[in-house]
Structures are given as C-alpha cells and as structure tokens.
Amino acid sequence: MTLKYEKTAEIGDMIKAYDFQPYAGRAPSFIEGKVVNKGYDLSVPYAAYEVVVTRDVFGGEEEQARIGETFYVPFESTMDYDGRVEVIVKPSPMVVTRKIGRNKGRPRLWLEGKILTAAGFGPGDRYNFVEGWIIKNNEEGSRKISGKGDKPIVDILGRALEELFDEIPETVTVTVAGPGLILIR
C-alpha cells in the first residue's frame, strides 16, 4: 500500500512541507528544502523524506531556526490533508568539477562566478557549511561570500576543508542543488 505522499517527491527535489494545515485566519508555517533521502530506513520510526531545510516560515514570518537542519517529513500522518507536501522545484543541477589547490601549503577550494550565482549567491551573502552543503543563511550565516558585482567568491581553506572531508581529495564535484543550496562532494 502506497502512503499518501510517498510518491510526491524524489531525492534531489525541493519540497514545501506544512507544519499545520493552512486555513483562513492562520498564517502559514512550513519548511522548504532539498530531499536528500527518502524511505523507511532513516533515523526515524516512520517512512519519510529526509530534508535539508533552506527556508523556514513560522506563523507567516521568515525564521532562521531550522535553516541548514535536517528534518523528516512523514509520507503520511494521522492528521493528513491535501497539499501538506508539494514539490516546488524539480532540479536541473549545474555541476562542475574543481581541483583542490594549495595556498601556503594548505588545501584550498576556490569557487566563483556562475556556480554561485546559479544558486542565488552574491557578494556579501552569508552562509554556513552543513554536512557537506553550503547553505545560504541570510544574515545568520557564520561565513560571508566575497567578490564584487556579478563575481561572487567562496574561498575555502585548510581547516574548513578538513571539516567537509575525512581525507582531502584531489578534485571535488560541486552541484547547485537549488536556491541557496550547493553540495560539495
């Protein structure tokens, strides 16, 4: 038997999942994010989408609390309703391969231009690293995009690269996975 939202999205899709059923007089509360896994063998005791959150709205207000976090959206719940989970973007990812260079003997990954603008990043934007992802995080991010005009730059050095990888590879694949979301593998 197929659960209500089991076939709504696939890994890689961007979804919107409501916290509460929207109705007149109640401002919406929901998350948007990228589906990174789906099924029954996740960290939760129910079948779900594993989602990395890129947008957090609670009571109609933009929030930062859940951005970059992993959430589990059940395929079905006891209080289900039509429209609780919907696909908002089917990806057509931009993918590039980049060499890991060196700067003063330390590993360095340099990203600039189109790969960043395709994900909606611009000079001055804030971001965080979350489990191999670069997540655009508005003013709450611990890191800042450098560059000028239409040439944003992310320069990842030494310790930051070591946090992303157990062993520093010679090359990495950089994928624009959606608005404000870049995956480095």
Give the termini distance in whole angstroms. Answer: 35 Å
Low-confidence stretches: none
Q: Work out the oligomeric state of the chains in this entry.
A: single chain
Class from secondary-structure proportions: mainly beta
Please bin the fraction of helical residues: under 10%
Number of helices: 2
* Overall domain count: 2
Mean pLDDT: 88
Biggest sheet details: 6 strands, antiparallel
For the CA atoms, what is the radius of gyration? 18 Å
H and E order: EEEEEEEEEHEEEEEHEE
Strand-residue fraction? over 45%
Number of E-type strands: 16
Q: What does this protein look like?
A:
It is a single chain. By secondary structure, the chain is mainly beta. It has 2 domains: 14-89, no CATH class; 94-184, no CATH class. It is 6% helix and 48% strand. The protein contains 2 helices and 16 strands. The protein has helices at residues 114-117, 158-164, and strands at 14-18, 30-39, 48-58, 61-63, 70-74, 85-89, 94-99, 101-103, 106-112, 126-130, 133-136, 143-144, 146-148, 151-157, 171-178, 181-184. The strands form 3 sheets. Strands 1, 2, 3, 4, 5 and 6 form a 6-stranded antiparallel β-sheet that branches. A 6-stranded antiparallel β-sheet has the order 7-15-16-11-10-12, with no helix packed on it. The longest helix is centred in the last third of the chain and has 7 residues, at 158-164.
